[in-house]
Amino acid sequence: PVSIGMSLDVASIDTISEINMDYTATIFLRQRWTDERLCFDGNKSLSLDGRLVEMLWVPDTFIVDSKKSFLHDITVENRLIRIYPNGTVLYALRITTTVACSMDLTKYPMDKQTCTLQLESCKM
Protein backbone atom coordinates (compact mmCIF):
# COMPACT_ATOMS: atom_id res chain seq x y z
CA PRO A 1 0.00 0.00 0.00
CA VAL A 2 1.01 3.60 -0.60
CA SER A 3 0.68 6.09 2.26
CA ILE A 4 -0.80 9.35 1.06
CA GLY A 5 -0.66 12.58 3.02
CA MET A 6 -3.43 15.01 2.28
CA SER A 7 -4.35 18.57 3.15
CA LEU A 8 -7.33 20.61 2.14
CA ASP A 9 -7.94 24.35 2.37
CA VAL A 10 -11.35 25.87 1.75
CA ALA A 11 -10.77 28.96 -0.38
CA SER A 12 -14.42 30.01 -0.38
CA ILE A 13 -17.94 28.85 0.30
CA ASP A 14 -19.68 30.25 -2.71
CA THR A 15 -23.35 29.37 -2.19
CA ILE A 16 -25.59 27.55 0.26
CA SER A 17 -28.93 26.38 -1.12
CA GLU A 18 -31.66 25.39 1.31
CA ILE A 19 -33.91 24.52 -1.63
CA ASN A 20 -31.43 22.09 -3.23
CA MET A 21 -29.97 20.98 0.12
CA ASP A 22 -26.38 21.58 -1.00
CA TYR A 23 -23.50 24.01 -0.88
CA THR A 24 -20.78 25.00 -3.33
CA ALA A 25 -17.19 25.51 -2.26
CA THR A 26 -13.82 26.10 -3.89
CA ILE A 27 -11.02 24.08 -2.32
CA PHE A 28 -7.29 23.54 -2.69
CA LEU A 29 -6.46 19.85 -2.37
CA ARG A 30 -2.85 18.74 -1.87
CA GLN A 31 -1.72 15.13 -1.83
CA ARG A 32 1.77 13.78 -1.15
CA TRP A 33 3.17 10.28 -1.57
CA THR A 34 6.44 8.58 -2.46
CA ASP A 35 7.01 6.58 -5.63
CA GLU A 36 10.52 5.08 -5.68
CA ARG A 37 10.32 4.72 -9.47
CA LEU A 38 10.59 8.52 -9.70
CA CYS A 39 13.84 8.90 -7.71
CA PHE A 40 16.57 10.90 -9.45
CA ASP A 41 19.98 12.38 -8.69
CA GLY A 42 20.06 15.99 -7.66
CA ASN A 43 19.08 18.26 -4.80
CA LYS A 44 16.28 20.32 -6.37
CA SER A 45 12.68 19.40 -7.03
CA LEU A 46 11.15 19.29 -10.50
CA SER A 47 7.91 21.15 -11.22
CA LEU A 48 6.03 19.55 -14.08
CA ASP A 49 3.36 20.83 -16.40
CA GLY A 50 -0.07 19.73 -15.15
CA ARG A 51 -0.76 17.98 -18.44
CA LEU A 52 1.90 15.38 -17.53
CA VAL A 53 -0.30 14.03 -14.73
CA GLU A 54 -1.73 11.57 -17.25
CA MET A 55 1.69 9.87 -17.32
CA LEU A 56 1.91 9.36 -13.54
CA TRP A 57 0.05 7.28 -11.01
CA VAL A 58 -2.12 9.52 -8.85
CA PRO A 59 -4.50 8.58 -6.02
CA ASP A 60 -8.12 8.06 -7.05
CA THR A 61 -9.52 10.48 -4.51
CA PHE A 62 -13.13 11.61 -4.82
CA ILE A 63 -15.51 13.88 -2.92
CA VAL A 64 -18.27 11.97 -1.16
CA ASP A 65 -21.80 13.30 -1.88
CA SER A 66 -20.55 15.57 -4.66
CA LYS A 67 -23.32 16.52 -7.07
CA LYS A 68 -20.91 18.14 -9.51
CA SER A 69 -17.29 19.24 -9.45
CA PHE A 70 -14.81 20.77 -11.82
CA LEU A 71 -11.12 21.56 -11.96
CA HIS A 72 -10.25 25.14 -12.78
CA ASP A 73 -8.58 25.50 -16.16
CA ILE A 74 -8.16 29.21 -16.85
CA THR A 75 -5.67 29.90 -18.43
CA VAL A 76 -4.23 26.43 -17.88
CA GLU A 77 -5.39 23.61 -15.62
CA ASN A 78 -4.90 24.67 -12.02
CA ARG A 79 -2.85 21.71 -10.88
CA LEU A 80 0.73 21.35 -9.79
CA ILE A 81 3.00 18.34 -9.85
CA ARG A 82 6.33 18.57 -8.07
CA ILE A 83 8.71 15.62 -7.81
CA TYR A 84 11.53 15.55 -5.28
CA PRO A 85 14.81 13.62 -5.69
CA ASN A 86 13.71 10.92 -3.22
CA GLY A 87 10.61 10.16 -5.35
CA THR A 88 8.16 12.14 -3.24
CA VAL A 89 5.36 13.58 -5.36
CA LEU A 90 3.33 16.66 -4.45
CA TYR A 91 0.08 16.91 -6.39
CA ALA A 92 -2.09 19.99 -5.85
CA LEU A 93 -5.28 21.14 -7.54
CA ARG A 94 -8.06 23.68 -7.25
CA ILE A 95 -11.58 22.28 -7.34
CA THR A 96 -15.03 23.82 -7.16
CA THR A 97 -17.61 21.32 -5.95
CA THR A 98 -21.31 21.26 -5.12
CA VAL A 99 -21.92 18.85 -2.25
CA ALA A 100 -25.19 17.49 -0.88
CA CYS A 101 -26.04 18.53 2.68
CA SER A 102 -29.18 17.30 4.41
CA MET A 103 -30.56 20.24 6.34
CA ASP A 104 -33.15 20.18 9.10
CA LEU A 105 -35.01 23.47 8.84
CA THR A 106 -37.81 22.66 11.33
CA LYS A 107 -36.42 25.17 13.86
CA TYR A 108 -35.85 27.95 11.31
CA PRO A 109 -34.72 30.72 11.92
CA MET A 110 -33.11 29.34 15.08
CA ASP A 111 -31.71 26.27 13.35
CA LYS A 112 -28.10 25.22 13.07
CA GLN A 113 -26.77 23.17 10.16
CA THR A 114 -23.69 20.99 9.91
CA CYS A 115 -22.43 20.16 6.44
CA THR A 116 -19.46 17.89 5.86
CA LEU A 117 -16.82 17.67 3.16
CA GLN A 118 -15.52 14.11 2.98
CA LEU A 119 -12.86 12.71 0.68
CA GLU A 120 -12.32 9.03 0.03
CA SER A 121 -10.19 6.84 -2.13
CA CYS A 122 -11.83 4.41 -4.53
CA LYS A 123 -10.71 0.88 -3.66
CA MET A 124 -10.62 -1.74 -6.36
From TrEMBL:
Cellular localisation: Synaptic cell membrane
Main location: membrane
Gene3D superfamilies listed in its UniProt record: Neurotransmitter-gated ion-channel ligand-binding domain
InterPro entries: Neur_chan_lig-bd, Neur_chan_lig-bd_sf, Neur_channel, Neurotransmitter_ion_chnl_CS
Gene Ontology MF terms: extracellular ligand-gated monoatomic ion channel activity; transmembrane signaling receptor activity
Signal peptide: none
Domain Neurotransmitter-gated ion-channel ligand-binding, chain residue ranges per copy: 1-122
One cellular component term from this protein's GO annotations in UniProt: synaptic membrane
Entry keyword annotation includes Membrane: yes
Matches recorded under SUPFAM superfamilies: Nicotinic receptor ligand binding domain-like
Pfam families for the chain: Neur_chan_LBD
Entry keyword set: Ion channel, Ion transport, Membrane, Synapse, Transport
Record's bilayer topology term: Multi-pass membrane protein
Similarity-based family: Belongs to the ligand-gated ion channel (TC 1.A.9) family.
Protein name per its UniProtKB record: GBRP protein
Organism whose genome encodes this protein: Hemiprocne comata
Gene name, Swiss-Prot/TrEMBL: Gabrp_1
